[in-house]
């Protein structure tokens, strides 16, 4: 039985809107559901931001590459969310967890940054990051459904402009 659904997709693709409708439907069906917000909104994020403010490497204007450090923080954040949710489930016995993004976003987005920063050792670094992400996951893979929301880029850009009141272009 599916216990965890992870919605992935670029900003503005409609993940959150689809999740809201799925949650409404699931509740009407009598399922006890738990929405898990995007990565940057997890409880551990406040701790990470505080730590980063004091980190000398982030305050310096030199060529120190932070992509691996940033990736490991995101991995720690993802691990925290999964373990926190798993423990919460043991207390409250939810039928379904619906995640707005998960570790695939970390792998995809961070891989691009790490590839740019560490051309020669990029594949080796990403292999280790994958091992860390999949280590000791409280959710079994067979209980997880991944849904990628594919939306044309121009529609995503228009949605982000409207939602975030910012100007974006394709280039």
Give an overview of the whole structure.
There is one protein chain. By secondary structure, this protein is α/β, with parallel strands linked by helices. It contains seven helices and four strands. The protein has helices spanning 15-28, 44-54, 56-59, 67-92, 103-117, 122-134, 153-164; strands at 4-8, 33-36, 96-100, 144-148. A four-stranded parallel sheet has the order 2-3-1-4, with helices on one face. Helix 4 (67-92) packs antiparallel against helix 5 (103-117), helix 4 (67-92) runs parallel beside helix 6 (122-134) and helix 5 (103-117) packs antiparallel against helix 6 (122-134). Residues 56-64 have low confidence and may be disordered.
Give the topology, please.
Layout: E1 4-8, H1 15-28, E2 33-36, H2 44-54, H3 56-59, H4 67-92, E3 96-100, H5 103-117, H6 122-134, E4 144-148, H7 153-164
